[in-house]
Design brief:
By secondary structure, the chain is of the alpha+beta class. It is 34% helix and 24% strand. It has one domain (4-136, 172-180). It contains 5 helices and 8 strands; from the N terminus they run ββαααβββααβββ. Strand 1 (4-11) and strand 2 (14-22) form a beta hairpin. It is globular.
């Protein structure tokens, strides 16, 4: 599944990258009508890469933007962790309220970093993260492992998109996995 990268403006001066993945097998399962043009000379044998068009991406982002921004900036992190699935310190949130069916995959670190950058990190969020972090450290102190770490210098780059600065890099942003789209 190759990703398509788009951007969502969270505040008037801050944007975040969004990687959009299309789950090919689920989308083909959920497709109700497959149309074939009989006049076409070209025959399609197998679809390897399935990407959304620019119009579909605009429709998807426009439809779920308010819900995404609400989850990313307003909902308490403790509530998000309780209500949703947690995989490898990433929160998986199912979005089925609209004609697009997808789920959002975002790391707790990204949420904290985003809220810190836009000034919406609350005391409850800080307390919940510190409690959670403290319990993880006490468990990890009991395990003895030897590891070698080599730190490479990474250049810090900043991006600006139409006078809107990018909050996080592309490696750890917001991932959307689309598994059903509206009928045309």
């Amino acid at each position: 599944m190759p990703a398509t990268t788009s951007f969502i403006r969270v505040t008037p001066d801050k944007s975040i990258p969004v990687r959009i993945f299309v789950n090919r097998s689920k989308l083909l399962e959920n497709a109700s009508v497959i149309s074939v043009n009989e006049k076409s000379i070209v025959k399609l044998q197998k679809i390897n890469i399935l990407k959304l068009s620019n119009g579909d991406i605009n429709s998807l982002i426009g439809t779920i933007r308010r819900e995404l921004v609400d989850v990313l900036t307003n909902k308490p992190i403790g509530k998000l962790l309780e209500e949703n699935t947690l995989r490898n310190n990433r929160i998986v949130i199912d979005i089925n309220t609209h004609e697009w069916k997808c789920y959002m995959n975002v790391s707790v670190y990204f949420l904290v970093n985003l809220r810190l950058n836009i000034g919406r990190l609350t005391k409850d969020d800080i307390e919940h993260i510190s409690k959670r972090k403290g319990s993880n450290f006490s468990v990890s102190l009991l395990v003895k492992t030897s590891s070698f770490s080599f730190e490479e210098e990474k250049k810090l780059t900043k991006y600006k998109i139409r006078k809107s600065s990018l909050v996080s890099g592309f490696h750890d942003g917001l991932d959307l996995y689309v598994y059903d789209r509206p009928n045309k």
